[in-house]
Amino acid sequence: MASILLGAVPVATAGAGPAQVDHARLLRADREPGQWLAPGRTYGEDRFSPLASINDGNASQLGLAWYADLPGDRGVEASPLMVDGVLYNIEPWNVTTAYDARTGKQLWRYDPQVDRDKGKHACCDIVSRGVAAWKGRIYVATLDGRLIALDAKDGKPVWSVQTFDPVWPYTITAAPRVYDGKVLIGNAGAEGAARGYVTAYDAATGKQLWRFYTVPGDPSLPQPNKILEMAATTWKGEWWKKGGGGTVWDSIAYDPALDLVYIGTGNGGPWAQAYRSPGGGDNLFISSIVALKADTGDYVWHYQTTPADEWDYTATQSLILADLKLDGVTRKVIMQAPKNGFFYILDRATGKLLSAKNYVPVSWASGIDMATGRPIVNPEAHYGVNPVVVTPAPGGGHSWHPMAYSPITGLAYFPATELYYAYSLNPAFRQTPGNMSQLGIGGTGFDLTRRAAAEFAERNDKAWLVAWDPVAQTERWRVPYPQRGSGGVLATTGNLVFQGTINGTFAAYTADKGHKVWEMPVQQVPIAAPISYMLDGVQYIAVNAGWGGGIAHAASSAPLSFVKATPRLLVFKLGGTLTLPAVAQTAAALVRPQDKADAATIARGEKAYGDHCASCHGAQARGGIKDLRRMTAQTRAEFLDIVLAGKRREKGMASFADVVSRADAEAIEAYLARRTSEDWESLSAGK
User: Fold this and answer.
1) What pLDDT sits at residue 288?
2) DSSP string, 208-238
3) Sequence-distant (≥ 6) Cβ neighbours of residue 599 within 8 angstroms
4) SS3 29
5) Quick one: which H or E segment has residue 635?
6) In this structure, what are the phi and psi dihedrals at residue 149, rounded to the nearest 5 degrees?
7) What is the pTM of this model?
């Protein structure tokens, strides 16, 4: 694929300017504990800081050192980088910034002018999870599919390459990874049934070096490699016309000793296997961990966590490399706590399953058969037209929020959720190429039976921060939260674990026991994973605070009482004295709309809402990134212009006129009025 060169390509040398990160420097990252050179700090992605100036004995003295307001009101999921005194961050719409890491002074800002219409293809918000640094450049992957190399001195583009096949509704929300001169990036879009792949580009020029498809193509044509010929035997029907899914939308790790790169793949597309691969099959390589040769992208091994997945049990969650002593033998392993509720430990050279145990209640399977490595699937978890309540829900026992691992405590830390969901086939499903919502499930709408099942699921929502012992495969401690939505995790040598909470705070717990030692209200929910760095002998903790993302889209209730301010980048240190400004209360009065539509219109609106709106605005219009039961009078007056004309395109709400007719939009508006009326008592009480 040709790249678009936007300027000269200088040859970076050590000490030649900012962001001088290279292979040798990343290999010895632990010798520079004050830096944060890569999204997970090291190639192993353990998100563990060796710094200990801030520790369990003095964390109570933490305070705000500086902060930066981030424009907009969407989710902020990125972990910044800090290289040689400069902190590099990324905001919604992939706006990238550099700050003086001591003072917070902005050094440069780059806006890639992302196509706002791509917002409707982003199942889980217009977010980004970070950037990468390499030899004087900062690498940005945009929602609309560009991989861009920026000059770290001034943020000006050096080269840009388009990574998408335009046939499918792809987006990118992941942070790129760089290893040994190669930039690796995948994509999202399996909710639109997009076919997954991961691509390596030359970091200096943007030239494509290799691409690995995670789902086979048309079997009547030559597959790119023999391993995809094998994978094609695990599919039925005409899956290549439907896409297949399996997108590589988040975590990637690299083992320099083995020269292997590890990718996690996403759910099948459509979700329902009855539509994706009628007749069954494992559907390789969806919901899998795949090891590839770093130089060529050639397949080495795979482990499929959820064969034939039909519950959205992605295996794209954090991949962490570690050395663990198992049965008296030190093994080089890769660890993951994917959505399906089991914590996996694999030999990272061979892919052999070493252990697996559920970390949350699981009903879709009774366990993992260690002889075959396959889950023992509960037959009752397979759904048809009638709804089946299953746990974990599509949000997973653990979602994208980064996990951390401490080699000192030997514990992995991550947010866990017990949540149930009513799955069922949508008998009226018809695939529409290019449409983001290609699930094939009935979800939670359309009739009282599904609604009752969904309400049962919501009543059983539990969430907590867990410390998991991967050797013993058991929980060591937990911190409960009132609902899901707390953020990613940082562990440190100071016996601390840092996490943003759904309570609108940023908190520190002891890594060995889980005792809270510090907490600060921050007017937002920091869902991103924090980082730590040191300058002039001063240790800092930095975190992005901005409520949004997939859980916010699906949540039946939002933490409205805590989300009071603009998203912010927050930086803390011992003795920090800065305070956040007071937030003016500007909430508009809730207005009860007219609710006069007939039953047929409401039914039409409910179905259209489920097909096009629920993934962002919540099942049954309860919660979501914007709770549409709480629309202001102005929003109701502009509803058709917003949905069909894209009046709020800049805020991420693109026009849906290509997939929603005016009659359907009017029916959706009527359905939302009905939902507001039905819930008026609780809504007017502020619940």
Assistant:
1) 98
2) EEEEEESS---TTS--SSHHHHHHHTT--SS
3) none
4) helix
5) helix 633-637
6) -100, 125
7) 0.91
* 369 a catalytic residue: no
* Angle, vertex CA 559, rays to CA 557 and CA 565, nearest 5: 140
pLDDT digits (tens, 9 = 90+) for 600-651: 888 888 878 877 777 677 777 776 667 788 887 788 887 888 887 777 777 7
Q: For Cα atoms 625, 485, 483, give the angle at the middle one, nearest 5 degrees.
A: 105
Task: Identify the pLDDT of residue 624.
Answer: 66
Could you tell me if 489 and 51 are in contact, meaning their C-beta atoms sit under 8 angstroms apart? no
Task: Round to whole Å and give the CA distance between 232 and 228.
Answer: 6
Segments of the chain scoring below 50 in pLDDT: 1-15, 444-448
- Please enumerate in sequence order all residues whose Cβ is within 8 A of that of 540, keeping only pairs 6 or more positions apart, or say none: 65, 101, 532, 533, 534, 571, 572, 573
675: left (phi over 0), alpha (psi -120 to 50) or beta: alpha
Q: SS3 of 41, please?
A: coil
Decide if 431 contacts 193 (C-beta within 8 A).
yes
Residue type, 315: A
User: Which token pair is 540?
Assistant: 């800092």
Residue 86 pLDDT:
98
Give the pLDDT of residue 647: 74
- Find out if CATH 1.10.760.10 is the number for domain 599-684: yes
Taking a C-beta distance cutoff of 8 angstroms, is the pair 128, 146 a contact?
no
- The DSSP element (H or E) to which 366 belongs, if any, is strand 365-369
Question: Which of 393, 360, 363 shows the shortest CA–CA distance to 378?
Answer: 363
**Percent of the chain predicted with pLDDT > 90:** 68
What is the structure's pLDDT at 444? 42
Sheet (strand 4-5) strand order: 4-5, 157-162, 146-151, 137-141, 132-134
Q: CA–CA separation, 144 vs 315, rounded Å?
A: 23
Position 680 scores a pLDDT of: 77
Nearest one of 252, 118, 135 to 194, comparing CA atoms: 118
Q: With beta carbons less than 8 A apart as the criterion, state whether 70 and 569 touch.
A: yes
* Residue (of 264, 139, 254) closest to 190 by Cα position: 264
3-state secondary structure 373-434: CEEEECHHHCCCCCCEEECCCCCCCCCCCCCEEECCCCEEEEEEEECCEEECECCCCCCCCC
Query: Of the listed 282, 312, 627, 664, which one is catalytic?
Result: 312
Residue closest to 667 by CA, chosen among 623, 621, 607, 614: 607
**Closest by CA position to 288, among listed 251, 254, 255, 324:** 251
CA distances from 518 to 77, 494, 507, 521, 531 (A): 22, 13, 6, 11, 17
Instruction: Phi first, then psi: give them for residue 172, nearest 5 degrees.
Output: -125, 130
Tokens 């609604």 belong to 451
Full DSSP string of 272-330: SHHHHSTT----TTTTEEEEEETTT--EEEEEESSTT--S-----S--EEEEEEETTEE
Of the candidates 433, 442, 449, 424, which has an alpha carbon nearest to the alpha carbon of residue 611? Answer: 442
Distance of CA 8 to the CA centre of its chain: 34
Concatenated DSSP letters of 94-146: G-EEEEETTT--EEEEE-----GGGGGG-TT-S-----EEETTEEEEE-TTSE
